[in-house]
Amino acid sequence: MTLTNGRGVFARSLGEFAITGMLWFAKDIRRMRRQHRERRWEKFTVTELHGATLGIIGHGAIGRATASLANAFGMFVHGIGRRHSREEFETILKKSDYLLVGAPLTPETRGLIGERELRMMKPEAVLINLGRGPVVDEPALLHTLRENWIRGAVLDVFDEEPLPEDHPLWALDNVLLSPHCSDNTATWLYEAMELFLENYTLFAAGEPLKNITDKKAGY
Q1: Is 142 exposed, middle or buried (0-12, 13-18, 19+ CB in 10 A)?
Q2: Dihedral (CA of 114, 120, 126, 132) sign
Q3: 3-state SS class at 77
């Protein structure tokens, strides 16, 4: 039996959210909001996305959509997909100013980004997880953020959803947290149905389908 999925339907919105997260840290929006509340006029230095390095773990639809936008900002983009060497993987961890994790959740990717990998990242780096929560070891990430091994994290996915009210992530100032809604646009259901109908038309005509799932790979 052939199985297809909705790959690509959410990519555009997720790519925009990835850029939003990078700008949130680059322009230090949290500081701007804090000074706004305190009515405090205090200039500070911001950074640019231009010239920064974006590493992408999982160069699927989300990674490609983000890469396209990042290129427009003048960023350097490096990504790896399913087949890569450990050396390539570690090079991206070490060189990225922003690390986008968009990999699917499989037995091979569960806990892919753990303490060892987080320690390889630059102190000023930002981790962005838009794929599946368990691809990043959440306890290790919490420890990393508390100890300021990296600058911060942009998170749209978590081990447990909804995130419990007493979860320590809520209290961290160096996290931009989305309740798994960065792809929840007003048109996503319509776009998903369009893709389904397009595939149904192809199926009825006996033509190759889009987004065929590799059952062995798990996605």
Answers
A1: middle
A2: negative
A3: strand
The SS3 of residue 128 is: strand
* Cis bond upstream, residue 179 (ω within 30): no
Contact (Cβ atoms closer than 8 angstroms) between residue 128 and residue 21: yes
Residue 136: which region, alpha, beta or left (left: phi > 0; alpha: psi -120 to 50)? Answer: beta
For 132-154, what is each residue's pLDDT tens digit? 999 999 999 999 999 999 999 99
CA distance linking residue 10 with residue 181, whole number of Å = 11
- Written as six digits, the tokens of 187 are 């048109």
Q: Which residues are catalytic?
A: 132, 161, 180
Domains delineated in the chain: 11-204 (3.40.50.720)
The alpha carbon of 96 is separated from its chain's Cα centroid by a whole number of angstroms, namely 13
- Amino acid 128 reads I
Tell me the pTM. Answer: 0.95
Distances (CA, A) of 163 to 135, 169, 175, 183: 16, 9, 14, 17
**Helix, strand, coil % in the chain, rounded to nearest 5:** 40, 15, 45
DSSP single-letter state for residue 219? -
Q: Hey, which residues does 128 pair with through a beta bridge?
A: 100, 154
Name the band, by pLDDT with cuts 50, 70 and 90, for residue 38. Answer: very high
